[in-house]
Amino acid sequence: MLQDYIFSLLTGYVDEPPAGVTLGEGQAYNPYFPGGALSMVQQLFNDSVQYEDGAYRGGGHVPCALLAAIKLALQHEYPTRLTLTCTVVV
User: Fold this and answer.
1) 3 state DSSP class of 8
2) What distances in angstroms separate CA 38 from CA 8, 30, 32, 85, one per listed residue?
């Protein structure tokens, strides 16, 4: 499933590639990316979001919220909802 792949891609970075894997300059290793060598460094970290109430939501909270927002944006009726919402609010 695409959602599982994107979640794994966002959270699957490892500090060191396995033995025998050579990375180029500026590359990171992510076993969920075909070939493992990815030219995008890790974007999400466990402590990247601070909540006002001090609650810790774990490392999977931000990627799940991000995937939900992407899924909503890709729904075919989203532009209509957004236009309607903006019209009502304004």
Assistant:
1) helix
2) 13, 7, 10, 39
Q: Which residues are CB-neighbours of 49 under 8 A, at least 6 positions away?
A: 57, 61, 62
| Rg of the chain taking only CA atoms, in angstroms | 18
Model pTM score: 0.60
Q: Which residue has the tokens 């999977």?
A: 60
pLDDT in tens, 16-44: 899 989 999 999 999 998 889 999 888 77
Superfamily name with CATH number, domain 2-89: Cytochrome c-like domain (1.10.760.10)
Q: How far is CA 73 from CA 1, 12, 70, 81, in A?
A: 18, 24, 5, 10
Rounded-to-integer distance, Cα 51 and Cα 27, Å: 31
Side chain identity at 15, as an amino acid letter?
Answer: D
